[in-house]
Amino acid sequence: MKMSGNGCPPNYRSCDLRGMPLAKLKNIQAKLREEIEEVEIVLYQETANKCMKCEEKNRSVTLVPCNHYVVCDTCATTQRECPYCQTPVTPKA
Ligand SMILES: [Zn+2]
Ligand SMILES: [Zn+2]
């Protein structure tokens, strides 16, 4: 994952880290943990809205008959089964 802009962690490599004071290393570790937590929260939220099939478009279709709201309208037309529960879906007319 490529990140840019403010507040993003620089690319630490073990050769840069070796010899650093423990306090500084722990500080870096704590900062990176915070970054990871933020990424995980956003990733979770984004995943919750994205189509399970293409992961690009937002979910917009409720599959029949399982009623799972997991795919976008594009994928819904080509899905033969629900990507969440594998129930065969009734194609939309
Ligand atoms: Zn899709
Ligand atoms: Zn389903």
UniProtKB/TrEMBL annotation:
Q: Which InterPro entries match?
A: Znf_RING (IPR001841), Znf_RING/FYVE/PHD (IPR013083)
Output the Gene Ontology terms for molecular function.
zinc ion binding
Report which superkingdom the organism of origin falls in. Eukaryota
Keyword presence, Zinc: yes
Domain RING-type span(s) in chain numbering? 51-86
- Could you tell me which Pfam families the record lists for this protein? zf-C3HC4_3
Q: Does the keyword rRNA-binding apply?
A: no
Q: For this UniProt record, give its keywords in alphabetical order, as a comma-separated list.
A: Metal-binding, Zinc, Zinc-finger
Annotated protein name in UniProt: RING-type domain-containing protein
This chain's source organism reads Anopheles maculatus
